[in-house]
Amino acid sequence: MQANAKTQMTKATWLWDTPLIRASAADIVQFCKSNEINVIYLQINRDIQASDYASFIRLARGNGIEVHALDGRTTWGFTANRRSIDRSFDWLALYQSNVAADERFSGIHVDIEPYALPYWDKTGSDFVAQWQGNVRYIVQRAKDLRLPIAADIPFWLSGFMTPDGKETLSRWMMRHYGAVTILAYRDSAQGISNMAAAELTEAADLNIPATVGVETVHSLEGANITFFEEGRARMNEQLDEAASLLAEHGTFAGLAIHDYKAWRAMED
Fold first, then answer.
1. How many other C-beta atoms can be found within 10 angstroms of the C-beta atom of residue 97?
2. What is the pLDDT of residue 223?
3. Are 43 and 15 in contact (CB under 8 A)?
4. Residue 213 β-bridge partners
5. CA torsion 227→230→233→236, rounded to 10°?
6. Which residues contact 164 (CB under 8 A, 6 or more apart)?
7. Element containing residue 257 per DSSP (H, E)
């Protein structure tokens, strides 16, 4: 899917607290519909019954909302943890094969942040190479399921090169996934645009659709990181303005709000 004048813009949210779909499915879908969400990234939780996923996805689809299987851990960046990747994809493969067409996930969304681990080292190690190897593996598993896959990447990943020095790490990730969400966590339209600009330029050059993610969860990293303090009205105003600024990038595909639970709890 390419982002252009004829393509519907994505407005997405992450839903990590999967047990909510058991008792609050209608409420979640209504909130998302009221806020023009058309994609939900829903965490895979193997403790949740397949029937709960099926009924939620069916309800969401009936309201024009796609549901993508969300998973990923910091440890997914390391070769030794492929069993964890396989457990997730094996569950997804079994689920997809046992439910009706309107109860299936429409895509896969991964969030892998090995750089968040205390022993991560961007130089003098093979950590990046291990991450790249797992990305290739994950992308192939998605192809086997015939599902599109996208990944979260931080805005600063364009500041690092691949081990062979041929391209930025963000560009490499875009080429392999085929779609990304750029995490440009700032609480103003201009700040969001500034943070996302370098990677959106890369995405446009590669003709890769890229959504831009913003934060609503309370953060200790600084007052300008999240919309937690500003509230929904101010966030909506800034997101409208940000969308206009970001539209100059040819494959800008929309916005994603992290995450449903924190967003829902925000003051109007």
1. 9
2. 84
3. yes
4. 183, 256
5. -30
6. none
7. strand 252-258
84-141 pLDDT, tens digit per residue, is 999 999 999 999 999 999 999 999 999 999 999 887 765 568 999 999 999 999 999 9
Q: Which residue has the tokens 């500041």?
A: 159
CB of 79 within 8 A of CB of 134?
Answer: yes
Give CA angle at 19 (38, 118), nearest 5°: 90
Q: Which two tokens stand for residue 112?
A: 């892998």
129 token code pair: 């190479």
Neighbours of 108 (CB within 10 A): 26
Contact at 8 Å (CB) between 21 and 54? no
Rounded distance, CA 116 to CA 197, Å?
23
Q: 């291990």: which residue's tokens? A: 130
Structural domains in the chain, sorted by start: 10-265 (3.20.20.80)
